[in-house]
Design goal:
The protein is of the alpha+beta class. It has helices at residues 4-8, 61-73, 92-101, 114-148, 153-164, 183-186, 188-191, 195-208, 255-290, 301-308, 337-357, 383-397, 416-431, 447-450, 456-467, 476-490, 495-502, 506-520, 527-539, 542-545; strands at residues 2-3, 17-18, 28-29, 31-34, 48-52, 78-82, 105-108, 168-171, 177-180, 212-219, 222-231, 239-244, 320-326, 362-365, 372-376, 402-406, 439-441.
Length: 546
């Protein structure tokens, strides 16, 4: 915008004099108004240059000081007074008061009518604004053409830096630089600056989501004015357009022109987001089919490797599924814009971090949920440490907490379903607890968990038909036979070891095993029988059934 200094430096306005030494001539002028009304400040737009004869304040300097205070509070650009007709000279008290506020007091020549000077000033201000408007629209047109031709963010930021003749960069919601102008390579002072020192300023602006300007110290001898403009593709975590040396932007580039460039950058980011969402839908469908339970004949290895090559699927003997879920989240519900932002940004973060920490790891959205699935295709020996590091680094960037639920490793593509189901069961268990752990492993089920949904009558029937009278023995002899049989099977049918464990003679063990074989009419070491006997002995144990 046009400043008072720019106006006063023009030869056509050289007759206008500044009356006070501490006047802030960097104030912007948006429009010109003429008024003699004492309470005009109530009706004036901001950044007005007010022209007057001050007839209402003749012989009343205190009232004029109060008037100046009301104008400064608005604020206005300054007060131009035509001296001579009603006030021949301003009182020193008025000038001192204006100096205290750095408020510009201007003297309009008595030979020039206020209407005429007002028209001249307004014409100049409007011409400047018109030039800047046309320039801003031209910038928008050029940037839009670049976007339509497929220019990426790096090209757009480089082009903006060239137009501004100032260093420009764009940072993502993680405060990472994703594009910067060539100035950062050409100027040594900028090439060596520490981006980490800039991050606290950027985080503060992200939190407020409002444009801001601050002084940034590159080194002890070099400070630059930096302007930051949020680009709000995300409601809570904006991208940031950062302009260095913002106080030196050349004419006719204006705030409006920057806003037009910002709009094109926003559209480019939005286009990128929609392209990403389209690709994620394809990945979601593939992962849903990969983890779906089907007949083995329907899942040939060659078909899956061919189908999945575009997604990074490779032949391996080490597949493992990890489900990534948010802390305190439901399985399939996004309830607000914050969770939407978290969902998209977490995928972007995980995608980068998996590439950095894992070999051949693939990331997929999980259908009908707000969670993600990771497919590991290589053995990982420090898995927990790596996942905790990813969680911690994300929390340092954004207020997002993750949990990782891990299924067991499987050795072929057709078995990925089982690893997924284990990770899914672990995830749902964690979501129903208040666990402070970040990484959760699937706990293999024992006999109790395997039969917990089987009717007790069916379990008892299996035990009785398999063990006969030894299922639930009554006599002391049958109890001893059951005990010996159990230890004998657990000792891999080793008579000597069984005798040692039971503190009885070897011949006693032989005798009891023979008696058992008479009951089952089959050798105890028969593979099929021994398996059924061991299972039935476990299921008919009092502690198991209780």
């Amino acid at each position: 915008m046009t400043t008072l200094k720019a106006i006063l430096d023009l030869p056509s306005f050289s007759t206008i004099q500044v009356l006070n030494k501490q006047a802030d001539l960097s104030r912007e002028v948006y429009t010109i108004e003429i008024s003699e009304t004492p309470d005009v400040a109530v009706y004036l737009p901001k950044h007005t240059l007010l022209l007057t004869t001050a007839m209402a304040f003749k012989d009343d300097p205190k009232k004029l000081c109060a008037f100046i205070q009301s104008l400064n509070d608005l604020p206005v650009a300054g007060l131009g007074i035509k001296l001579g007709r009603f006030i021949s000279k301003l009182d020193e008290e008025v000038i001192a008061f204006a100096d205290k506020l750095n408020f510009p007091l201007l003297q309009i020549p008595s030979t020039v009518g206020l209407g005429r000077i007002s028209h001249q000033l307004l014409s100049y201000v409007w011409d400047q604004q018109t030039d800047k408007l046309y320039y801003a629209l031209d910038i928008q047109k050029k940037f839009s053409n670049l976007m339509i031709k497929g220019a990426d963010l790096k090209i757009l930021i480089s082009h903006l830096g060239t137009i501004l003749k100032r260093p420009v960069m764009m940072v993502n919601p993680f405060t990472e630089i994703i594009a910067e102008s060539k100035h950062f390579q050409q100027h040594l002072s900028l090439a060596n600056y520490d981006h980490q020192q800039l991050i606290p300023h950027l985080k503060k602006i992200q939190d407020t989501n409002k444009e801001s300007t601050f002084l940034f110290e590159i080194d002890k001898d070099n400070k630059l004015l930096v302007s930051v403009f949020p680009i709000k593709i995300n409601a809570y975590f904006p991208y940031l357009l950062v302009i260095f040396k913002a106080d030196q932007i050349p004419y006719p580039f204006s705030q409006f022109a920057i806003e037009q460039a910002n709009t094109v950058l926003l559209h480019t980011l939005y286009k990128n987001l929609k392209i990403r969402e389209s690709k994620l839908q394809l990945r979601e469908t593939f992962f849903s089919q990969l983890t779906k339970k089907t007949n083995q004949n329907e899942k040939t290895v060659m078909n899956w490797l061919d189908y999945g090559k575009d997604y990074g699927l490779i032949q391996s003997t080490n597949y493992k599924i990890i489900i990534v879920h948010f802390e305190n989240s439901e399985w399939n519900t996004i309830s607000n814009e914050l969770e939407t932002d978290q969902y998209h940004l977490t995928y972007e973060w995980l995608e980068k971090q998996l590439a950095n920490h894992f070999e051949g790891a693939l990331l997929f959205p999980i259908k009908d949920s707000i969670h993600y699935g990771i497919l590991l295709q290589e053995p990982e020996y420090k898995l927990k440490n790596k996942l905790c590091l990813i969680h911690r680094q994300l929390q340092e960037k954004l207020p997002i907490a993750l949990h990782f639920s891990i299924g067991n490793e499987v050795n072929d593509i057709n078995s990925i379903y089982f690893s997924y189901q284990e990770a899914l069961a672990t995830c749902k268990t964690v979501m129903n607890t208040d666990s402070l752990e970040i990484v959760h492993y699937y706990q293999t089920k024992g006999f109790n968990q395997l039969i917990e949904h089987t009717p007790l009558a069916q379990v008892e029937h299996f035990c009785i038909t398999t063990l006969k009278k030894l299922a639930y023995p009554i006599s002391e002899m049958d109890k001893e036979l059951r005990k010996t049989l159990k230890v004998y099977l657990e000792s891999q049918c080793d008579i000597t070891l069984t005798a040692k464990l039971l503190f009885i003679h070897r011949n006693t063990v032989k005798y009891r095993i023979v008696k058992c074989e008479e009951i089952y009419k089959t050798p105890i070491n028969d593979p099929t029988l021994s398996l059924k006997l061991r299972l039935a002995l476990e299921l008919s144990d009092d502690t198991t059934l209780n």
